[in-house]
Amino acid sequence: MSATERGNLVLRVTMETAIVVAFGFWGYHTGGSTAARIGLMLAVPVAGFGLWGALDFHQAGRWSEPLRLVQELVISGLAALAWYAAGRHVLGLALGALSLVYHALVYATGAKLLKTSETHPDHVVREA
Fold it and tell me: How does pLDDT run across 84-112, given as a tens digit for each residue?
């Protein structure tokens, strides 16, 4: 793994962690009672990543990569808004910027969000 790939991986892990925490933080601050706060703190990230995982664009042909990009930008944008709505404006802006930088670097380095197998065009491997 090259230094660029490692750097992109660090950005990806940081971005995804911030997304999970943002959804949980927003859920916690949205709930009224303690039980509601804890429930939403757990349910909102599960719902967000459940939706993310349920939508599979591998079979979308030439549209798979653009659709995945839109999906990731929407999820990270919603998480940035969640930080912002929960009163953590700087974290919201930072997550939005991190998402834009990460996705720009992915394409600037010639990488893709979805990878397909070189030897078997019908066989698709998901990037972790």
Answer: 999 999 999 999 999 999 999 999 998 89
Determine the 3-state secondary structure of 116 from DSSP: strand
Distance CA 24, CA 100 (A): 22
* Contact of 24 with 46, CB cutoff 8 Å: no
* Element spanning 125, H or E: strand 124-125
Distance CA(82)–CA(104), nearest Å, equals 22
Amino acid at 116: T
Backbone phi, then psi, for 124, in 5-degree steps? -115, 135
Rg for the chain, CA atoms, rounded: 16
What is the CA 24 to chain-centroid distance, rounded? Answer: 14
Which pTM was predicted? 0.82
Two structure tokens written together for 98: 């991190």
HSE-CB of 42 using CA atoms within 13 angstroms: 5
Number of H helices, E strands in the chain: 4, 2
